[in-house]
């Protein structure tokens, strides 16, 4: 079994034996004996071929089909992505976490990987789907990346959809603050939000926004 930990803020270290899953190209160093093979269909071993094909099709159609490799072996495996900050999240049994695909670095074999529809990112770069990981086995851990130090919030809270990275619990609702000032270029620039209303959950955002998908103004 592998265990994840953060190493000097910018990398994730997987230590142990067995296998885990990581973004293709995530490895920056290793000590021990490892092999890596690209996952063609599905990371979930107990699924039938048909369900694996359906899961792959869902990931491709939603744009959440990030290239994943299965890493097997024993030793210490270092992973990183563009010098971004790394956080490791340990899930409770049955707990799920929604993660932006571009920020997913690695996850242990105790996680079930798929996509989920959120339908609240129509006018931002958030998108209408996100990657979903659910704790189904032993030691479920997820490694994520953020552009800058992560901001960890407890719900309820309101966040910018262009900064959100991941969250536990129910999906957020969408709130727009659009009025006549928006159409004459006098908006504050904060016109839409994601609202997380279920208490006691966690939301992680990064201090760097993605480029917004909509700009309404009259010059």
UniProtKB/TrEMBL annotation:
SUPFAM superfamilies referenced in this protein's UniProt entry, alphabetically: TRAP-like
Top-rank taxon: Bacteria
Official protein name in the record: AIM24 family protein
